[in-house]
């Protein structure tokens, strides 16, 4: 996965520990908001992270939830490789070795993308469903999939013929 | 939706590609919506205006762009749906559940 997430500075776990809450839990606070957003978007509570380690580049192990995510800065060599497959201006690469983790992350990112549905389009569709409430009074939750719902609806329509 | 409490019951469900830029092989875009009364299909062919099919689940009638349609319009809607189903993967889709926000106590 590649994203324009800006330059991510190296993470130094001990430096990132909360200074304002010197309690026994030693809650880590991430200085980098993009990394924090990424971790939250994966459904991981940053306060539950028990292990955060860095190696060459940025090699992150996040508790037991995702054990093998490597966040790489884009070096000129990686940039050359990416440009060969049509990806330009990337500033961050996340390397995932496990297929299961890849699936999990893809699913989470799809949900995050979906949560960004254009409100104008949504409002128009809702008006056809007689839901002309102010969008601010409505809440939205998201789940992956939907084929069964559509298949069932078209079957219902077909039966009316 | 059956079996859920009224507090949590979705007022409507909308299904579309998680990635809004994704289109069907012909370049068209389809968004599906439903509630207990209606089924709505919004179909945007490439470089053409959006057509909205609204099927009334109680009366069995169909409106297309707000005008009363025929059985032929129903068949067109079903054909579009079949095309969508044949060319979409479960993992590419997202269902948006629309519900009323809980009011503060």
Structure description:
The complex is a heterodimer of chains A (161) and B (105). Chain A has five helices and five strands; from the N terminus they run βαββαβααβα. Chain A has a four-stranded antiparallel beta sheet with strand order 1-4-3-2. The N terminus of chain A is likely disordered. Chain A is an alpha+beta fold and 161 residues long. By secondary structure, chain B is of the alpha+beta class. Chain B has one domain. In chain B, 15% of the residues lie in helices and 36% in strands. Chain B has a seven-stranded antiparallel beta sheet, covered by helices on one side. In chain B, strand 2 and strand 3 form a beta hairpin. The relative contact order of chain B is 0.21.
Précis, in short:
The complex is a heterodimer of chains A (161) and B (105). Chain A is α+β, with helices and mostly antiparallel strands. Helix content of chain A is 35%, strand content 17%.
Topology of this structure?
The complex is a heterodimer of chains A (161) and B (105).
Chain A: E1 2-3, H1 33-41, E2 58-62, E3 66-73, H2 76-84, E4 92-96, H3 99-114, H4 119-128, E5 138-144, H5 147-159
Antiparallel strand pairs in A: 1-4, 2-3, 3-4
Chain B: E1 12-17, E2 29-34, E3 38-44, E4 51-56, E5 62-64, E6 67-68, H1 71-86, E7 93-100
Antiparallel strand pairs in B: 1-2, 1-7, 2-3, 3-4, 4-5, 5-6
Largest sheet of chain A: 4 strands, antiparallel
Work out the helix count of chain B: 1
Instruction: List the helices and strands of chain B in order.
Output: EEEEEEHE
Number of strands of chain A: 5
- Order of secondary-structure elements of chain A: EHEEHEHHEH
Number of domains in the coordinates of chain A? 2
Strand content of chain B: 35-45%
Number of domains of chain B: 1
Question: Reading side by side through the largest sheet of chain B, how are the strands ordered?
Answer: 6-5-4-3-2-1-7
Most extensive interface between two protein chains, with residue counts: A-B, 40 and 48 residues
Span of the ends, CA to CA of chain A: 46 Å
Unreliable runs of chain B: 1-7
Structural category of chain A:
alpha+beta
Morphology of chain B? globular
Taken from the alpha-carbon principal axes, the silhouette of chain A is elongated
* Helical stretch tally of chain A: 5
Head-to-tail CA distance between termini of chain B: 25 Å
The largest sheet of chain B, given as strand count, sense and whether it forms a barrel, is: 7 strands, antiparallel
Overall pLDDT confidence of chain A: 63
Low-confidence stretches of chain A: 1-29, 50-68
Strand percentage of chain A lies at 15-25%
């Amino acid at each position: 996965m590649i994203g324009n997430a800006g330059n991510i500075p190296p993470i130094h776990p001990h430096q990132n520990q909360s200074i304002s809450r010197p309690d026994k839990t030693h809650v880590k606070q991430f200085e980098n908001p993009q990394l924090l957003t990424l971790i939250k978007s994966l459904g991981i509570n940053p306060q539950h992270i028990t292990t955060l380690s860095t190696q060459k580049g940025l090699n992150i192990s996040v508790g037991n939830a995702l054990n093998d995510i490597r966040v790489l800065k884009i070096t000129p060599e990686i940039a050359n490789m990416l440009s060969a497959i049509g990806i330009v201006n990337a500033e961050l690469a996340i390397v995932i070795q496990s297929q299961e983790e890849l699936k999990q992350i893809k699913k989470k990112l799809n949900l995050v993308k979906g949560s960004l549905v254009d409100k104008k389009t949504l409002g128009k569709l809702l008006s056809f469903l007689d839901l002309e409430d102010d969008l601010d009074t409505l809440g939205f939750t998201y789940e992956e999939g939907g084929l069964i719902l559509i298949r069932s609806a078209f079957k219902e329509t077909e039966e009316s013929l | 939706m059956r079996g859920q409490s009224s507090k949590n019951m979705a007022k409507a469900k909308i299904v579309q590609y998680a990635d809004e830029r994704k289109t069907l092989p012909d370049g068209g875009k389809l968004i599906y919506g439903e509630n207990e009364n209606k089924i709505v299909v919004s179909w945007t062919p490439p470089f053409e205006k959006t057509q909205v099919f609204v099927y009334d689940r109680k009366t069995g009638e169909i409106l297309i762009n707000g005008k009363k349609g025929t059985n032929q319009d129903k068949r067109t809607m079903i054909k579009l749906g079949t095309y969508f189903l044949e060319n979409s993967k479960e993992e590419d889709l997202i269902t948006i559940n629309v519900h009323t926000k809980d009011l503060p106590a």
